[in-house]
Amino acid sequence: TVTWTPPSPLGNTTGYRISYTTGSDVDIDGGSTNSYTLTGLTNGKTYTISIVTTSSGLPSAPLVVTVSLVPSAPFIDSTPTVSATTVTITGSVPRDSVVTGFLVQWQRDTSGGCTNEDEGSINATGSFTSYTITGLEEGNRYTITVKLYNDAGRGPVSNSVTAKTIEAAPSGSPASITVGTLTANSVTLQWGEVACLERNGEITGYTVTAANSDGVVKGTSSVNVDARQATISGLTPSTQYTVSVAAVNGAGTGPVTALPVETEGPPPPTGVTAVQDGPTSITVTWTPPSPLGDTTGYRISYNTGSDVDIDGDSSNSYTLTGLTNGQTYTISIVAIAPNRPTSSPIEAQVSLVGVPEKPTVDMDNIETSPTTITTSWSFPPDATGSEVSWELTGQMRRRRASNAEGGTSGRLPKDQNSYTIGRLRSGTSYHITVTVFNPAGNSSTTFTHSTAEDISKSDSSASVAALGGVLGVVIVTAIVVQAVVIVFFIRRLQRAKVRPQSRAIDQSTKASTNTGVEMPTFSGKKYL
After folding, report:
1. Is the pLDDT of residue 81 over 90?
2. Could you point out which of 199, 352, 476, 521 has its C-alpha 20 to 30 Å from the C-alpha of 445?
3. pLDDT at 56
């Protein structure tokens, strides 16, 4: 392509004539035209090109340039052949190109944090059909291009192809391994990346191990490539380990970076609580560590110089006695093992309180009904709960057959300071006791109070008594009448039996008269 600047002023310019080689002329119309492309030329040949203006008169003086044609861009096949350290490319050159050599260039992919320090180029003589790049890194991706050249110079760049060499196990270990957290049963590690040229492929993860002095692996952890941190658990307290980290890729595991560590003493117990259970005693409870490791017991410390050693790895409670009421105790507990440091302490704090004062019952505001008594009281400041109990007056020692004879409310919360006793007997006196509690003990206040009389029952009793009197009179009258009737009928029956006998007596009397025998008389009468 030839370009130029039209003359100024144009004058009578009507066009241009381009000449290249002998007899090869091209006339171009248009005074303002400024470029033209010559085609059908020979690659690798040098051309002398001149241009003049044309007009109705004579042509201008010629302008002359010399041009040599460089080769066109070659083509690289998209399927290179690879090994661990080489890439072989194949391709072709344009048919019309004159080629005396070619330049192969490559550059490693910068993904994964690696820089492009591994790049290169090489010149080869002859026409391009294939080339093998050597000395590359295992498991790396490379971008490759080719340029052809001849005596005129280098031509344009070819298409690019990407090839990845075959992976090998990492040849380098992780950098900067450090211990993050170390406990009795675990160790947490952090580390840096493997050097780029030592990865030999794409790092996909890491293997972390902990081995004891005998070389026995006690813990293993596999983590992904982005973490670069891992925790190995299940270790033995107060034990020396060699912890190591190795990088992993598709071809295998690389060399390790190792570091010696020693776990802490026995793990501490957990869930420690301390509760007052008497005026001068505190019970401490805890959950034994898991795993126990070589724990053989525990040490409880309270205040300066007061220690108690407890044997037994599975023990979980102990009561401290002989303490001072009203004093605050800070209690700590550690696990102990032979010839080992103790675990880190776990603390709890308790303030000992005394037995609570007696509750004050509000005697002026006791509410009663025929079956209930409602009482209220004030809490002493150090009380934590209360209870109400009751008994029939004079029956404190008798067995309770029902709620009306006695009972208890059960433990009431501190925020409840009143209680209604139900199902009692009307007009009955009861002994009522209000008891308040705290860990040191309890105190009670007892008083006597009666339920109200049931008026409805009294009226009913009077009515029943009146009715009973009337019924009594009726019943007595009926009995008397019945007795009179019975007596009457008995008399009539007796008379009916005697009359036949009297007739016989009269006849006997007549006979005796006739015979001269005298008959006796009965009280001046002849018959009863």
Report:
1. yes
2. 352
3. 67
